[in-house]
Specification:
The chain has 239 residues and is α/β, with parallel strands linked by helices. 33% of the residues lie in helices and 21% in strands. Strand 8, helix 7 and strand 9 form a beta-alpha-beta unit.
């Protein structure tokens, strides 16, 4: 008996060249779309940032999530945060810079970046659904000190599609971690954002340089269109 056919999703518009992925062995990883980063009064704003560029991508990430869910794809959400006693937040992280509020301090949405506080939650429009994996991470990368690698291996995942914030910090770190672990990776260009647009542009260029040294990028419309096209095609087996 032949193996179960897989849905192959083709992305000819990807950069630096065409990309394709088997939907059943792929995951959409939405990085840190939390109130503390996206909304006024959170950690991002306490660092002196304008949060509007991050707020602007929420509808795009929602459209991506809707299309991925409709196709039956597996979804991972990450949240950066720390235990209430901050034992997993090293001084080198907590004491960095000169924010108005540091990690663990009380802010408008509860203690900053502390698990269980209102600001730690994912923005309501992008809330996880039943059956989706939520990873709480104490660092910038999604693999550091988390069960993500084991969870992906258990499900046979080989390809990762990334979205979320911020492009040059937690998203890029997670994508580079994934690349080092052998995953094929793509970042959705307009479903990611930075407080600094120039940093986002530089990150997209770095990831795809030298023939896709870290991975690929593509716009949301290309990905959602490809998912719809794949659903219309007869199932085919991967070579």
């Amino acid at each position: 008996m032949s193996a179960r056919p897989e849905i192959l999703v083709e992305l000819p518009a990807a950069q630096p060249f065409a990309w394709r992925f088997p939907l059943e062995r792929s995951a959409l990883v939405v990085i840190d779309m939390q109130r503390d980063f996206v909304e006024p009064g959170g950690f991002g704003e306490s660092l002196g940032n304008d949060v509007r560029p991050l707020q602007a991508i929420v509808p795009t990430v929602r459209a991506l999530l809707d299309a991925w869910r409709a196709a039956g794809g597996f979804v991972v959400h990450t949240r950066e945060g720390h235990a209430p006693d901050l034992h997993d937040c090293p001084p080198a992280k907590r004491n960095r810079g000169a924010p108005r509020l540091r990690i663990g301090d009380a802010g408008p949405m509860g203690r900053i970046l502390v698990i269980g506080e209102p600001g730690h939650a994912i923005v309501p429009a992008l809330a996880p659904q039943a059956g989706e994996l939520v990873i709480d991470k104490p660092g910038k990368g999604a693999f550091h000190a988390t069960p993500l690698q084991a969870e992906l291996q258990r499900r046979g995942i080989s390809h990762l599609v990334f979205a979320g914030v911020t492009t040059e910090v937690c998203v890029q770190t997670s994508m580079r971690e994934a690349n080092d672990r052998g995953y094929e990776c793509l970042l959705v260009e307009d479903a990611t954002a930075s407080y600094f647009p120039a940093f986002k542009a530089a990150t997209l260029a770095m990831l795809t340089a030298q023939g896709g040294i870290v991975g690929w990028t593509a716009p949301t419309a290309a990905l959602t269109g490809a998912l719809a096209a794949a659903a219309r095609r007869p199932l085919e087996e991967t070579p």
